[in-house]
Amino acid sequence: MTPNQTLIREIAKMIDHSLLHPTLTDAELREGCQLALRYDVASVCIKPYAVTLARELLAGSDVLVGTVIGFPAGNSAVSIKVAETIQACLDGAVEIDMVVNLGKVLAEDWDYVTNEIRAINTACTDHGAILKVIFENDYLPEDRYKIRLCDICTEVGAAFVKTSTGYGFVKGSDGKYSYEGATLPDLRLMLDHVGPGVRVKAAGGVRTLDGLLTVKDMGVSRLGASATAAILEEAYRRFGAVAADTPVAPITEGKGY
To answer: Is residue 162 among the annotated active site residues?
Structure first.
């Protein structure tokens, strides 16, 4: 089989390697950055305090440094989110994944939501970064909330809309917590309602090559993943970069969605 290097690179450059688990240590963050370099993914999505470390580890590569703002619940004051964004950019982040204020979304306080997204998008663009707006769809019971958020992000000029944090655990009637993350119906809805120039990122629940290819075919541009090594090792074999029967070295995936 002739290797389809173009497709393999497209797959790798869809992935934002997630390094966001609450218990992730600095050693694990370093290992995660090395993994991102090895597979030449689009970016790492790293904890805010570790942006400087990631910038140093990824220097000279085209793996970008991203981080999260207002993570994971989105409840910080706008001024704090803006300050956090500016600090992250000064530390070296060029992609910012920000969680909206979910209570304000559910209250349909659209002026507040619009002003918050606009303020953070301005802080990003002023400092050479792009903004991905996390809706946390598991908490939004009706499509109309997601549609309105797509409209606002289009109006403001955000670079991406994003389904989930991967940590939006909803308490069920049995007292147990769960989440769905990036569902195909939500991704279709978001793709259908963003304007030109606004891309869609899936996060949470897509952990296989087939899952990535499914959302890629839909038009999704990025995927937040911690199963990066498993996805790309499968891609190497399926698309001919290595022989299909080449043994896979043991893979220890990062903690996360």
So the answer is: yes
How far apart, in whole angstroms, are the C-alpha atoms of residue 243 and residue 36?
Answer: 22
Per the listing, tokens 């690179």 go with 9
Q: Give yes or no: 201 in active site.
A: yes
47 is catalytic: no
Helical spans, DSSP H, in 127-196 = 143-156, 184-193
Q: Which of 81, 104, 132, 201 is catalytic?
A: 201
Q: Which helix (H) or strand (E) holds 199?
A: strand 199-203
Indicate the pTM of the whole model: 0.94
Q: How many degrees, rounded to 5, is the angle at CA 99 between CA 80 and CA 171?
A: 120
Q: What is the full per-residue pLDDT of the chain (257 aa) written as tens digits?
A: 567 999 999 999 999 999 999 999 999 999 999 999 999 999 999 999 999 999 999 999 999 999 999 999 999 999 999 999 999 999 999 999 999 999 999 999 999 999 999 999 999 999 999 999 999 999 999 999 999 999 999 999 999 999 999 888 777 778 877 778 899 999 999 999 999 999 999 998 899 999 999 999 999 999 999 999 999 999 999 998 778 778 776 676 666 66
Q: Is the backbone of residue 95 left (phi > 0), alpha (psi -120 to 50) or beta?
A: beta
Residue among 47, 81, 162, 186 flagged as catalytic: 162
How many residues in total does the chain contain?
A: 257
